[in-house]
Specification:
Layout (H helix, E strand, L loop, with lengths): L3 E9 L6 H10 L5 E2 L12 E2 L13 H6 L2 H16 L12 E6 L5 H14 L8 H5 L3 H10 L5 E2 L7 H14 L5 E8 L4 H10 L28 E9 H6 L6 E10 L12 H14 L8 E3 L6 H15 L8 E2 L2 H4 L6 H15 L1 E2 L22 E2 L4 E8 L3 E8 L4
Parallel strand pairs: 4-5, 4-6, 9-10, 9-13
Antiparallel strand pairs: 1-7, 1-8, 2-3, 6-7, 8-14, 11-12, 13-14
Length: 412
């Protein structure tokens, strides 16, 4: 079995359009949440989101593609180009038949679907775009990346709601580990700040309604939390076999060492209060990595700022780690990015890698009134200097999908 290392990262997020902007924003505790500008949000109760600002798809795509492709594809292509450049994955440095793509998304082109349905309703079937089908399917993010970067190996997509990116990266990890590819470009992407998506989540009463204070609306583990804040963007990483990375002289930023997943088999939306399914995903990842629970130096929590979700994850961490749960630092970077749904796991794994490289743990912002039942160390409101050699990242999705990835600081 091959060891799997990370050699490149790219990020398009509400904190900025590059890896450095994303990381600098996290450490500064800078919020990317603002009033919604993508549509007239006066029609819904929640009017705030973590929008990507200033994105120009023509930097990465042909102008025609940039004009007509949904943003979930554009964000993924942009982040993939950044990751490939960061990895110095240049033509001739790898066999394209041994390089693949696996990028997940929870909702995909919902905005494009809404737009084309309105055209069908008001202008007729003949006016629907001929690109409707190839642009609305979720696997097209992976497809377009493979075309642009000439990656001819395994190509797939993961669709497991908010666990999509973690599932995509976990499966990419196994593809490289078992020797089916030398390189996998992997992660997640989402662009669902649209009227229909907002209307649906608002009807569920799942999102924060703190419209008068966007920057403080996402408050994981706080007693006053009232729901998640939607975000958008993409994170893409280059996973590579250690043998291949060394052979081409790649810089290694970290190693993937564990992946666990489970199903709650409980409810289509809510996790069980004791977080039993999340517990099993974390334990599976720890076992696969060959670790003890006390080897984990940092947890990037799913931490969505929902009343039930934060309690369940806290309970699961306590079950997995016992007394050590009170010693391991935990943070939710969704406090400043919002919840990127199917893309969230990828930017949070990037946050774990950067944490290990820089010796700084990003804070959980807006944590001023801790929930008495959420009584762990959530690194409140200020980044913390710490040595982190092994980090865990959790992502859980509707349908009871639970995923955990574990990464290790590179040091042979």
């Amino acid at each position: 079995m091959e060891r799997v290392v990370i050699t490149g990262m790219g990020a398009i997020t509400p904190l900025g359009l590059s890896l450095d902007e994303f990381w600098d924003g996290l450490i500064a505790g800078k919020s990317g949440v603002t009033n919604v500008t993508h549509f007239d949000a006066s029609i819904v109760r929640t009017q705030i989101a973590g929008e990507v600002k200033g994105f120009d798809g023509e930097r990465y795509l042909d102008p025609k593609d940039a004009r007509r492709m949904p943003h979930f594809i554009q964000f993924a292509v942009a982040a993939a180009h950044q990751a490939a450049e960061h990895a110095k994955l240049e033509k001739g440095s790898f066999d394209p038949n041994r390089a693949g793509v696996l990028v997940g998304s929870g909702i995909g082109a919902i905005g494009f679907i809404e737009e084309q349905h309105e055209i069908l309703r008001t202008k007729g079937a003949r006016r629907v775009s001929p690109f409707f089908v190839p642009h609305e399917i979720i696997n097209m993010a992976s497809g377009k990346i493979s075309i642009d970067l000439d990656l001819r190996g395994p190509n797939s997509a993961a669709v497991t709601a908010c666990a999509s990116a973690n599932n995509a990266m976990g499966e990419a990890y196994h593809i490289v580990k078992r020797g089916d590819a030398d390189v996998m470009v992997t992660g997640g992407t989402e662009s669902s700040i649209t009227p229909l998506a907002f209307a649906g989540f608002c009807s569920m009463k799942a999102m924060s309604e703190r419209n008068d204070s966007p920057e403080t609306a996402s408050r994981p583990f706080d007693a006053t939390r009232d729901g998640f804040v939607m975000g958008e963007g993409s994170g893409v990483l280059v996973f590579e076999s250690l043998t291949h990375a060394k052979a081409r002289g790649a810089t290694i930023y970290g190693e993937v060492i564990g992946y666990g997943m489970s199903s709650d088999a409980h409810d289509i939306v809510s996790p069980p209060e004791d977080g039993e399914g999340a517990t099993r995903a974390m334990l599976a990842a720890i076992k696969q990595a060959g670790l003890q629970t006390t080897d984990i130096d940092y947890i990037n929590a799913h931490g969505t700022s929902t009343p039930i979700g934060d309690l369940a994850e806290t309970a699961a961490i306590k079950t997995v780690f016992g007394e050590y749960a009170y010693q391991v630092p935990i943070s939710s970077t969704k406090s400043v990015t919002g919840h990127l749904l199917g893309a969230t796991g990828s930017i949070e794994l990037i946050a774990c890698i950067k944490t290990m490289l820089n010796g700084l743990i990003p804070p959980t912002m807006n944590l001023h009134e801790p929930d008495p039942q959420c009584d762990l160390d959530y690194v409140p409101n200020k980044a913390r200097a710490a040595r982190v050699d092994i980090a865990m990242s959790n992502s859980f999705g509707f349908g009871g999908h639970n995923t955990t990835l574990i990464v290790r600081k590179w040091g042979e």
